[in-house]
Amino acid sequence: MSNPFYKNNGPFKLSDVLNILNIKDSNLNSDKEIKDIKDLNTSTETDITFFHSKKYKDIAKNTKASFCITNQSLKTELPNNCIPLVVENVLIAVSKLTAEFYPDAINDKFDESASNIEKTTHEGKVKHGKNVLVGENITIGLNCSIGHNTIIEKNVFIGNNCSIGSNTVIRNTIIKNNVNILDNCVIGKHGFGFFPKNNQNLRYPHIGIVLIEENCEIGCGSTIDRGSMSNTLIGRNTYLDNQIHIAHNVKIGENSIIAGQVGIAGSSTIGKNVKIGGQAGISGHLKIGNNVEIGGGSGVIKDIPDNTKVMGYPAKKIRDFLRENK
């Protein structure tokens, strides 16, 4: 599931796609239709995908997409069913094409549809504080509460028995049952995605959502960015402390505990039953295994296997860290 809230302007003929990407190839069937742009995992034969790093070569070999935006050095890693479309800069090309499919996903302007909850059908069904605004396409379950000065912008689903704190902004988010979101959070906004080009910064559309599963708690002042191409996921029964940043496409497994001021960069995957100490930082595109413990203040710059305890910068096995720092 990508973002169920953004309108897809596809399908596009392959000739249109080639024109957008400035690719000239007369051997391709230019009338073939492409319905969507998706990541390597979720693409089907009617989609186009992208492949920009050797880190994803095992996934690329199994993609179902008919076309893939990639570079010269990676094109041989694709399966026979997937035709490579070679460009100089993969991510800039993907940004340009995604903007054609989903033009509304580039920027996050304030939600003009939002109005005072007392003037909507939610009045009388939701316990709320003062100055609460809600937008269009909002679902709020039973026995929920919303604090003062909070804005539930368009395209949000909130399950039963949820508590949303004061001064919080939420959009493009699915929140399941029994979730507590504390004060001053920002959830579902555009992530930090742009590429320098010709002395300008090209914004990357974020077409994913935030999905928060059952029985989670999100601490005060935390920010959770929606996904760029896939979704940002907080697994069930996971607790986030205050002032945590979860970047776009991050996946956090169930039963995890993350202490204050932790930052997790984009597209990293955190396993189940993971504990992360305060002020730790995790670089992007990493895989942190199940039952991992990361000490406070650590800097994680490479994958961590299951059942490992690490600490320090760069993070290493805790026994090695303690031995080196006696």
What topology emerges from the helices and strands here?
Blueprint (H helix, E strand, L loop, with lengths): L11 E2 H7 L12 E2 L1 E2 L9 E4 L6 H4 L6 E4 L12 E4 L3 H12 L13 E2 L10 E2 L4 E2 L3 E3 L4 E2 L4 E2 L3 E3 L4 E2 L4 E2 L2 E3 L4 E2 L4 E2 L6 E4 L2 E4 L6 E3 L4 E2 L4 E2 L7 E3 L4 E2 L4 E2 L4 E2 L4 E2 L4 E2 L4 E2 L4 E2 L4 E2 L4 E2 L4 E2 L4 E2 L8 E3 L4 E2 H7 L2
Parallel strand pairs: 3-4, 4-5, 5-6, 8-11, 9-12, 10-13, 11-14, 12-15, 13-16, 14-17, 15-18, 16-21, 17-22, 18-23, 21-24, 22-25, 23-26, 24-27, 25-28, 26-29, 27-30, 28-31, 29-32, 30-33, 31-34, 32-35, 34-36
Antiparallel strand pairs: 1-2, 7-9, 19-20, 36-37
